[in-house]
């Protein structure tokens, strides 16, 4: 233990450490004993969090845990001091333990001036090769930096040799004389010393079994469960060089050759080019930037291999990533491509080694990104994306990282927001992880901040979609929010009710109370909009809600209704512009609702209102109800109630096209076709007479003629063809004048040529049809 002051040694012996320090450089490198020393002074530091191992990933885990505790406890012995210790830098361990002693004991060490070692003889002086094997030099991973340092070392070495050759006595054999340091006082003036008693120390020989047990304990490490990748720094290609190669591949494409010539002129391939790209990506050709990110996604596995195998490469990447996140704007054209690229890289790292990936992210990235997100909340999606990509294959890793987010932020409200966003990725329930989420979500219900309340209810709703039972038992705690005035809290309550209502439970009354209190035509349009989508699945199990649903659907703004009725379930989006609102499903209600129940309630609404004609919103809703062919025989009753409205709607230019679409859906539904066509025949003949007699709108007439032709020719159904044939034949007989002056004559002639027959069995009255007698 040469080099450690005596008072420090005595202090360490008094701490009763698990293992004695024989070689400070080796024994302190993994951080285990440092953690044990601090645990004597700070009970918050638990030894079960440390592993006494010499593997790089275990050492890194120990030191990163200490770093977090140092930050939390305001201990000024951070990374810049302990990193050289971890990498076995000369004298780093001794200097660090001195600093630890001074900090913990509040004592200043009295350090004697260092003993100057005699200059070695010429034959024992270090060679250039020995100097280049120095551990500090070998720690440098960047090739350019390493080459520059090597150049400096060799220059200095050559200069020393040149200077030595100017010394004439350099080849003389040195003589080293040990001088005894005597006192200047005379012997008779020396102070009388007290008698010193020297005792013989009795040393008990260590039992063989004890020696064996200690040897086992010193070598004991936990078995690797996931990680099989050894950190081999000499074989790892620099990460920033790999990224530079991906950018060069795009620069070599014909479309982007000018980018290389103009924006990256005189920039060398490698680290310099990569840093330059991220520095200027907001000011250069955005198509080029997005192409580079897309190529980075394709090569993410190669980059991930370098990052997982080398902590130094991961640190360089993390520094670049952090500086980019700090300055990137979320409205930048390349923002989504950037987020996609870092997600792909994180996913690939986790796929290679989930344990190492999580530790590296925790050590190099998590805390600074949390701090940035606290300052710039709009960048929360980046944090959530990175946390998920570093733990997407392991719920235990996710829980570990979420806890670290809380440690780094120290803010319950921030954690609840992170949890509500992270839950969007979950597809299955994990008891340990999601019970942790539930605990903080329930705390959020009591927050005075309405935004935090909304995030808390959002988290409960997302967990309810994974496991309804665990949330149903906590549902009474949500009732306190029924009086909330914040629109998003009420909207999230509707979402929660929509998720839980189909699962019949003892809380049905409370769920119905939530719906009635928040879902009504007089509510905010944002609340109605969210309720229309998230309550749609409940209409099958709770058909009594259909009447309320129709009233709200008709009341909402036309542009919102159009989006809600879209049958494409789009990705989630924001209801309002802002940084603090949740994302919601905004469309796809017809794909989830009880179509017959909605149509029946619409028919009832029209009848109760005593309407004479259909409005556009009514046709729009019917169309959405029929986007899948109806199979329930009860649909015939709905058609019977609405058929007059539909055929009359053919005369209205505003709804003509929509009415035709609804009629087609009814008439061509295989399960209903026979009954629908039977009921439609007299009504359609009558409406054609009114249409041709009263309407001069060419667009309406054209659409009607196309409707008739499409029914006959478009579905290749004999039943539909017979129906159209009967409609035209009966119309020609009943209204010959209207028939002859319309385009129905041409349509009929085409049908006759197709059927190879005549309209009438007897002699036709219309001169236009006489030429088609057989």
Q: How does the SSE layout of this entry go?
A:
Elements: H1 6-14, H2 24-27, H3 32-41, H4 56-73, H5 79-86, H6 92-105, H7 128-132, H8 135-138, H9 143-164, H10 208-219, H11 239-251, H12 257-262, H13 271-280, H14 286-298, H15 300-309, H16 311-327, H17 335-352, H18 354-375, H19 380-389, H20 395-409, H21 412-422, H22 431-445, H23 450-466, H24 468-472, H25 487-500, H26 508-518, H27 525-534, H28 538-541, H29 546-555, H30 558-564, E1 573-574, E2 583-584, H31 595-609, H32 616-625, H33 635-648, H34 656-668, H35 673-694, H36 698-713, H37 718-734, H38 736-740, H39 744-755
Antiparallel strand pairs: 1-2
Helix pairs in contact: 4-5, 4-18, 11-13, 11-14, 14-17, 15-16, 15-17, 16-18, 17-18, 17-19, 18-19, 18-20, 20-21, 21-22, 21-23, 22-23, 23-25, 25-26, 25-27, 29-31, 31-32, 31-33, 32-34, 33-35, 34-36, 35-37, 36-37
Provide an overview of this structure:
The protein is mostly helical. Among the domains are: 100 residues, Calponin-like domain (Actin-binding Protein, T-fimbrin, domain 1, Orthogonal Bundle), CATH 1.10.418; 164 residues. The protein has 39 helices and 2 strands. A two-stranded antiparallel ribbon has the order 1-2. α4 packs antiparallel against α5. The termini are far apart. One of its GO terms (cellular component) is axoneme. This is Calponin-homology (CH) domain-containing protein. It holds the Pfam family CH_2. GO terms for molecular function: microtubule binding.
